[in-house]
Amino acid sequence: KLLGLTYQNAAPAAMIGASNHFEVAIATSAVLFGLASGSSLATVVGVLVEVPIMLMLVKICLATRNWFKR
């Protein structure tokens, strides 16, 4: 709302911004530290947590849609 975006633009932008570059992070971690490292494990766990977090963001977007002009 502060940026002057409509709901139709703000909600997808929030989803894209929240989920960007996980695949690149996994590949980079595997190459730099190896598959057996704690860093690679943490990166993979991050991706597994992504789906529930994205669902919570969808719920937040739907709950705040009345903040935007129609």
Automatic annotation (TrEMBL):
Keywords noted in UniProt: Membrane, Transmembrane, Transmembrane helix, Transport
Keyword set includes Transmembrane helix: yes
Transmembrane segments: 41-62
Molecular function, one GO term: antimonite transmembrane transporter activity
Any one cellular-component term (Gene Ontology): plasma membrane
Identification of the protein by name: Arsenical-resistance protein
